């Protein structure tokens, strides 16, 4: 029953069956089914094949020989005419992004505290969390190329989404109960040394986190590439906006639920809190992925008429990753450049903003003569989490409002290309890349304000204000990149064969392109992690509430944001 249910969810090949039926009609009954109708009313000696194609149209051929070629041509044309999705389908398509984000909100809110409860030190935890950007930089592009070369009848993206979701569910459950699992294993093996047991638990934790990050890659890649594949160009911005909204909702829920006391449910300690959040994560991710797989169908007809290719080798995979960068348009490459610089800056805020607010709270308390007790430290964590909740709410509101403010780049002048007149034209600032640039300028301004901030309330306000920039970052780059890929798909119909081939290649390898884009997000995080470690090393010996390296990490992040804002402003 389970296999049958999965097969029904993944079934997407109705257009392919129709195409095969038409080919059977032209080659004889030995090829398969024979459900293509024949109309012989006009001339009994000449059969006319009729076939329905996606979109509700039908085609007719004057002879069995020509029917196959006409069907292929019609299907290829249909590949460039994706139907508009209803609001319900847009929600079904993007809700899984929210389910995936709930995984990250659980990790960001209580992952480090959970590691500390297992005896892992701060320096070790920083190296463990570096697994995530490393996997994103080097694993996801390969996964994207594999998905692009997939000829599964279930689709190019859907098997990767389902497999990744199953892997995430298994790994996060193992991570939540790794202490009990490894202690049972060592008891079975007769190991009694406490140090050995502790080391075994830590090794198991690292393995589970590595598996979790590996499983996230096909899931994240598949969900983002699916949006590009099934949405027409005019809906790419709206789809990205809905993805950003679900991301914001998941962030808010994750931080709020993480701040609740679970005493009535279980022991109110960090391990049980993380287990509680992990179970919620499993429910959120599973339900949203099932909705996406059940309601969304891949119907890229261009893949259906493509000839069967040879099995993909690992060398072909890396070649496709390289080709993914090669076939990217200049605009798409510029988007990746902006992402590279901006994520060099976002790393510091995402990982240290909560600690920044909490340490300011401790500093204020020390000035008032209050000793830093455990209760005060817990209060500082709640204050920092409260700032993160406000920032998430602001980001969510931004993802809801920004798409309605933004205008299509085809309807407004470019402030770069059209000169001074365009700069003063009404509404030029509504272009997506201009909004993105202004949000990065705002983020840089907020980080530089740390030179003057000395109160907790001011820090909370700044962190909340950064939510505006974060909301734009969760929407604008994906909208720009998705529009660029979809636009090349449509424009290819009117170009000559060589140009059209390149444009179709860009669309066919959207997974590899999204993988390259994700690498542009992940690699700067790795660099920022090492840079932050160096800054903390220079500022070692800091005590809670006193001067520390976190403000300097944020300020240097602002410099990277300024560079990113400059490149974003120059986008077309």
Automatic annotation (TrEMBL):
Quote any Pfam family the record assigns. Answer: MFS_1
The record's Gene Ontology cellular component field reads:
plasma membrane
Which segments show compositional bias classed as Polar residues? 24-45
The portions of this protein that span the membrane are 87-107, 127-147, 159-177, 197-216, 276-296, 343-362, 383-406, 434-453, 519-538, 550-569
What subcellular compartments does it reside in?
A: Membrane
Signal sequence residues: none
Stated membrane topology is:
Multi-pass membrane protein
Q: One GO MF term, please?
A: sucrose:proton symporter activity
Assigned keywords, A-Z = Membrane, Transmembrane, Transmembrane helix, Transport
Region (Disordered) location: 23-51
Query: What is the name listed in the Swiss-Prot or TrEMBL entry for this protein?
Result: MFS general substrate transporter
Per the UniProt record, the source organism is: Aaosphaeria arxii CBS 175.79
Lineage of origin: Eukaryota, Fungi, Dikarya, Ascomycota, Pezizomycotina
């Amino acid at each position: 029953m389970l296999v049958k249910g999965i097969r029904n969810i993944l079934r997407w090949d109705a257009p392919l069956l129709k195409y095969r039926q038409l080919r059977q009609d032209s080659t004889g009954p030995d090829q398969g089914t024979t459900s293509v109708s024949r109309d012989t009313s006009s001339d009994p000696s000449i059969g006319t094949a009729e076939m329905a194609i996606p979109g509700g149209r039908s085609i007719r051929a004057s002879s069995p020989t020509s029917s196959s070629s006409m069907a292929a041509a019609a299907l290829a044309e249909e590949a460039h005419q994706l139907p508009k999705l209803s609001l319900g389908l847009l929600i079904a398509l993007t809700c899984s992004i929210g389910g995936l984000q709930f995984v990250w909100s659980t990790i960001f809110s209580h992952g480090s505290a959970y590691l500390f409860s297992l005896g892992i030190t701060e320096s070790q935890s920083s190296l463990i969390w570096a697994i995530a950007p490393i996997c994103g930089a080097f694993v996801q592009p390969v996964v994207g190329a594999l998905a692009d070369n997939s000829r599964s009848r279930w689709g190019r993206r859907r098997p990767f989404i389902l497999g990744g979701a199953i892997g995430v569910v298994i790994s996060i459950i193992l991570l939540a109960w790794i202490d009990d699992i490894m202690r049972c294993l060592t008891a079975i093996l007769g190991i009694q040394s406490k140090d050995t047991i502790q080391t075994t638990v830590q090794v198991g934790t690292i393995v589970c986190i590595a598996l979790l990050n590996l499983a996230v890659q096909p899931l994240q890649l598949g969900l983002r590439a699916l949006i590009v594949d099934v949405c027409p160009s005019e809906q790419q911005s709206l789809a990205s906006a809905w993805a950003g909204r679900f991301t914001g909702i998941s962030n808010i829920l994750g931080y709020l639920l993480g701040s609740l006391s679970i005493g009535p449910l279980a022991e109110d300690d960090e391990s049980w809190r993380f287990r509680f959040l992990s179970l919620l994560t499993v429910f959120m991710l599973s339900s949203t992925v099932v909705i996406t797989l059940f309601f969304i169908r891949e119907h890229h007809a261009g893949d259906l008429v493509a000839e069967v290719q040879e099995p993909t080798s690992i060398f072909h995979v890396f070649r496709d990753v390289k080709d993914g960068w090669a076939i990217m348009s200049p605009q798409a490459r510029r988007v990746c450049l902006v992402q590279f610089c901006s994520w060099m800056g976002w790393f510091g805020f995402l990982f240290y903003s909560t600690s920044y607010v909490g340490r300011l709270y401790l500093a204020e308390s020390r000035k008032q003569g209050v000793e830093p007790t455990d209760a005060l430290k817990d209060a500082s964590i709640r204050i920092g989490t409260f700032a993160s909740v406000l920032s998430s709410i602001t980001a969510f509101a931004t993802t809801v409002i920004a798409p309605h403010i933004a205008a299509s780049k085809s309807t407004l002048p470019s402030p770069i290309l059209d000169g001074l007149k365009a700069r003063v034209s009404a509404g030029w600032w509504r272009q997506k890349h201009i909004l993105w640039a202004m949000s990065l300028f705002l983020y840089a301004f907020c980080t530089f304000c740390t030179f003057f901030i000395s109160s907790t309330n001011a820090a909370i306000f700044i962190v909340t204000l950064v939510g505006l920039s974060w909301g734009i970052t969760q929407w604008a780059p994906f909208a720009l990149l998705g529009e660029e890929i979809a636009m090349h798909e449509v424009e290819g119909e009117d170009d000559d064969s060589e140009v059209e081939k390149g444009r179709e290649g860009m669309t066919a390898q959207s997974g590899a392109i999204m993988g390259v884009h994700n690498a542009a997000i992940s690699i700067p995080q790795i660099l920022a992690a090492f840079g932050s470690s160096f800054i903390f090393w220079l500022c070692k010996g800091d005590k809670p509430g006193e001067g520390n390296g976190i403000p300097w990490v944020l300020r240097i992040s602002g410099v990277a944001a300024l560079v990113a804002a400059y490149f974003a402003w120059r986008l077309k």
